[in-house]
Amino acid sequence: MTQPYVLIVNSCQNEDLLTKREFVWPIQRALHTPSKTIHISKLKKADVLAANAIIFSGCQLKDNGFVKRVPKLKWLKDCSTPMLGICAGHQLLGMLYGGKISHAEKPMIGWTKLKKKAAHPLTAHLNKVFSAYELHGNLISVPKGFKTLVSSAHNPNEMMVHAKKKIVGVEFHPEVRNERIIQKFVE
Amino acid sequence: MRLCVLFSGGKDSTYAVHLAKQAGHEVACLLSMAPHNKESFLFHVPNMHMTELQAKSMEIPLVLVQTSGKKTQEYMDLKQALQTIKKTQRIQGIVTGAVNSIYQATRMQTIAHELGLYCFNPLWQTKPSAHWHELLLQGFEIMLVSVAAHGLDKKWLGKTITSENVDALIALERSHGISPIGEGGEYESYVVDAPLYWKKIRVQQFKDEWKGLQGTRHIMRAQLVAKPKSVSTDIIPARKRPTMKARRKKR
């Protein structure tokens, strides 16, 4: 019998050692459970169904390659595997469910103050206002069927959760000093 | 991709060069910023003149830029230098050795964005112990050239780090709260040998200077010496080293 594992999907445009080390490995290190990694270009339904949970990584600020992959990943909506999207992953999940992507007026880079909008077990350990690391130039609207958990002065959708399915999106990078969110998601 | 590595001569930026090459990128040049201010927030301070020898050993062009080292000016100086490099070297991105510093990462990401460059941080969020052991396993020979923290006394200055020393650095994190990777300025390092070096650096003359807790080893003279034949790199095997003529042609 195969040991349960979390599948981390590298959302970067290219399968490159440098971006893998920057965006995938920190998520892997944050987990206390076994994990496997795969590049988004190779992701198949069987991979998603075989994993206990899926985490879509973020990518470089200049990299918007994931946007054109969205139409080919519609089948993800048919999978019941819990999914967490981080930054680009958050935008990707949002687009899959009908959210609109747009360029932020100014990219968000660095340590930012965020505010909880609704209570949820994933953020229960955090104060009403907390700080997180951000690195994004796009914004994603909240799709139908999702509710906003966290927002900031510049982004109303910093964290969203699906009302029925176990699908969560975070615009900030929880793998940087907010690892507990990732750990709680896979628990 | 053609990249410029922000290079201090320390362990993190030297490893960033190593990883960029290992990933198959072309390192067009190294950029070293030499701050006049010893309290620079962004840049490594001691022995910046010695990055020239490291660049020579790696056979990568070096751009060495003087900066005041004052908080806002050093940012502008770095941006200006990268803007020039983007134009002259046709780079598409930069690589940094940022590990945990949000201050450093934020500034590098911002500059890269403003210049329309990709920004790679291959050491981002690496755990200190794993980072050190990875460096030693790859064959990096790292010397501490400045110390500035309780617990890092005279015996640490000029020390070449071994696995035992790494354990001691980790223990100092628990007892004195220092960052074992020195990202808070607790110490600064100089790489005397690395898999990418064609020749090893031998420090021939140095001067130690102490001001309270802060000790600096100023390298006055150093030279490149041949490496033992058994040492090979996992990137370019020593025997396949291209001839000088071929290397010139490639440039």
From TrEMBL, chain A:
Taxonomic superkingdom: Archaea
The keyword RNA-binding appears for this protein: no
InterPro entries listed in its UniProt record: ChyE-like (IPR044992), Class_I_gatase-like (IPR029062), GATASE (IPR017926)
Swiss-Prot/TrEMBL keywords: Hydrolase
GO MF annotation, one: hydrolase activity
PROSITE patterns, alphabetized: GATASE_TYPE_1 (PS51273)
Domain (Glutamine amidotransferase): residue spans on this chain: 48-179
PANTHER family to which the protein is assigned, alphabetical: GLUTAMINE AMIDOTRANSFERASE YLR126C-RELATED (PTHR42695)
Protein's name according to its UniProt entry: Gamma-glutamyl-gamma-aminobutyrate hydrolase family protein
Organism: Candidatus Iainarchaeum sp
UniProtKB/TrEMBL annotation, chain B:
Molecular function GO terms recorded: diphthine-ammonia ligase activity
InterPro entries registered for this protein in UniProt: Diphthami_syn_dom, DPH6/MJ0570, MJ0570_ATP-bd, Rossmann-like_a/b/a_fold
EC numbers, comma separated: 6.3.1.14
Pfam families xref list: Diphthami_syn_2 (PF01902)
Uppermost EC category: ligase
Keywords: Ligase
Biological process, per Gene Ontology: protein histidyl modification to diphthamide
Start and end residues of each Diphthamide synthase domain: 1-223
NCBIfam families recorded: arCOG00187 (TIGR03679), MJ0570_dom (TIGR00290)
The protein's name: Diphthine--ammonia ligase
